[in-house]
């Protein structure tokens, strides 16, 4: 039976309801009986999935979309102050609730696992959601991406476990009080909100301090930033720290990762016993994510051998090295990678699966602030591809920064000897890739913006070459 919906959330209105984080919360509330409404800039499959649950979804933003009986308005940090629905809520005295507060409310009275880190959150949260469901534990979950179909980013389950992706970008992960927290890595990102690594560490310390007394922090042993955070947290009262990774001092030690095409066989040493299991996605970083999930689940008492076997049922999440299809002997894969570490990790993973084929990338930088700070590192990472086409920066919520363009990335890649070029017209990409790709090649559309829309168009254009 679904928990009662608090009166304040009985008639919520979501601004940007189609977003990955917002739509998940809306879905769970709708399943629990709330009368959900909201708006988004454009229609989508996610909006259709919400309507199927009884939600009212308006396209476009207007004050008139806010119902007279709305009990609250839910926003994310991406919503600007001049949004007409937000302005109407404030004028009428309707409470404004941040997305993180709404999610924290959903996790109340659950055994919560919160997954944090600069990269890998969506994958690790998804691995836990899928494997715990496979074991019949019926978890609730909220993920920053769809598992298989639109709307599968969240679920209300009847079990006691709630798995949630915990976003550090705006410090909203400080709102959660998990029984188990995972920290996958700690790096400087989200430059509009963090000025230094010192601020990043302080933010992650605050997150760790929110773990309930007697709870567990699962944290990477191989990542320099995570090791520094571990050193800062050692000795905190009521906090159990379990490290994982390939480092010799890891509590849960990875002793082997054997790639097999688009899968990997992983062996870990846990409680002095070796355990081998299959990860059904390629790449060392995904193997590490799976071990983080395994360690967190066992911290909640899930038998390790059962959870390890169930992790093999995870076959990926949308936009995380998602195969979009093949045409003319060319595979097209979609990647959400937008930070240099993610770009390099996905390219290394794909390189191991490419055989004699080339790896071609269509990269769309995400955010002016991120590009300003990390353009050189992005260019170096792109040099791992055989050739790449770089689109203009996807602004998302940001205004342009003078002098910050994709040219900064291209110059850095060229300095590493990379075959990298600009493309200012996104619609010209399918023709361009069709002229570059040969049978056996792998094409990655890469970035956190709307570059994902190009995969089907590239496949359609390649199909004309094939015919």
TrEMBL record:
- Identify the SUPFAM superfamilies for this entry: MurCD N-terminal domain, MurD-like peptide ligases, catalytic domain, MurD-like peptide ligases, peptide-binding domain
Gene3D superfamilies, sorted: Mur ligase, C-terminal domain, Mur-like, catalytic domain, NAD(P)-binding Rossmann-like Domain
Give every Mur ligase N-terminal catalytic domain span: 13-109
Supply the EC number(s). Answer: 6.3.2.8
Q: What are the residue boundaries of the Mur ligase central domain, all occurrences included?
A: 115-296
Instruction: Give the chief site where it resides.
Output: cytoplasm
Question: Where does the record place the Mur ligase C-terminal domain?
Answer: 319-449
Q: Which GO terms describe its molecular function?
A: UDP-N-acetylmuramate-L-alanine ligase activity
Cell location: Cytoplasm
State the InterPro entries in the record. Answer: Mur-like_cat_sf (IPR036565), Mur_ligase_C (IPR004101), Mur_ligase_C_dom_sf (IPR036615), Mur_ligase_cen (IPR013221), Mur_ligase_N (IPR000713), MurCDEF_pg_biosynth (IPR050061), UDP-N-AcMur_Ala_ligase_MurC (IPR005758)
Source organism, top-level taxon: Bacteria
| One family name in Pfam for this protein | Mur_ligase_C
What are the record keywords, sorted? ATP-binding, Cell cycle, Cell division, Cell shape, Cell wall biogenesis/degradation, Cytoplasm, Ligase, Nucleotide-binding, Peptidoglycan synthesis
Q: Where does ATP bind?
A: 117-123
The pathway to which it is assigned is: Cell wall biogenesis; peptidoglycan biosynthesis
Q: What does this protein do?
A: Cell wall formation.
Q: What family name appears in the similarity comment?
A: Belongs to the MurCDEF family.
Name of the protein this chain belongs to? UDP-N-acetylmuramate--L-alanine ligase
Species source reads Streptomyces silvisoli
Q: Tell me what gene encodes this.
A: murC
């Amino acid at each position: 039976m679904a928990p009662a919906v608090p009166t304040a959330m009985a008639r919520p209105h979501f601004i940007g309801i189609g977003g990955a984080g917002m739509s998940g919360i809306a879905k769970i509330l709708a399943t629990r009986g709330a009368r959900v409404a909201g708006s988004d800039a454009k229609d989508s499959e996610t909006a259709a999935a919400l309507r199927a649950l009884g939600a009212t979804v308006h396209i476009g933003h207007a004050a008139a979309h806010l119902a007279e009986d709305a009990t609250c308005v839910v926003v994310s940090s991406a919503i600007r102050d001049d949004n007409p629905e937000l302005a109407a809520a404030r004028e009428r005295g309707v409470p404004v609730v941040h997305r993180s507060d709404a999610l924290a409310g959903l996790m109340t009275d659950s055994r919560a696992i919160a997954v944090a880190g600069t990269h890998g959150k969506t994958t690790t949260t998804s691995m836990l959601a899928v494997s715990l469901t496979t074991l019949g534990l019926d978890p609730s979950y909220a993920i920053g991406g769809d598992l298989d179909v639109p709307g599968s980013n969240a679920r209300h389950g009847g079990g006691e476990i709630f798995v949630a992706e915990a976003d550090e970008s705006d410090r909203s992960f400080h709102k959660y009080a998990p029984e188990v927290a995972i920290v996958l890595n700690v790096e400087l990102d989200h430059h509009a909100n963090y000025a230094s690594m010192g601020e990043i560490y302080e933010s992650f310390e605050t997150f760790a301090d929110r773990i309930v007394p007697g709870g567990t922090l699962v944290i990477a042993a191989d990542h320099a930033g995570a090791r520094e955070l571990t050193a800062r947290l050692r000795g905190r009262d009521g906090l159990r720290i379990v490290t994982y990774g390939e480092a010799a001092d890891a509590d849960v030690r990875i002793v082997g990762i054997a790639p097999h095409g688009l899968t990997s066989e992983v062996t870990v040493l846990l409680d002095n016993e070796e355990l081998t299991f299959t990860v059904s996605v390629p790449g060392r970083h995904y193997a590490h994510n799976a071990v983080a999930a395994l360690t967190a689940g066992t911290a909640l008492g899930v038998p390790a051998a059962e959870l390890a076997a169930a992790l093999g049922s995870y076959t990926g999440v949308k936009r995380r090295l998602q195969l979009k299809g093949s045409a003319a002997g060319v595979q097209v894969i979609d990647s959400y990678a937008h930070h240099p570490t993610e770009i390099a990790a996905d390219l290394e993973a794909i390189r191991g699966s490419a055989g004699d084929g080339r790896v071609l990338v269509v990269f769309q930088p995400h955010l002016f602030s991120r590009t300003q700070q990390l353009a050189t590192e992005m260019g170096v990472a792109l040099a791992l591809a055989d050739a790449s086409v770089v689109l203009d920066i996807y602004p998302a919520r940001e205004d342009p920064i003078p002098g910050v363009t994709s040219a900064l990335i291209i110059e850095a890649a060229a300095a590493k000897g990379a075959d990298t070029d600009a493309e200012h017209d996104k619609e010209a990409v399918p023709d361009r890739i069709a002229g570059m790709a040969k049978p056996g090649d792998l094409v990655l559309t890469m970035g956190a913006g709307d570059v994902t829309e190009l995969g089907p168009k590239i496949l359609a254009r390649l199909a004309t070459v094939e015919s």
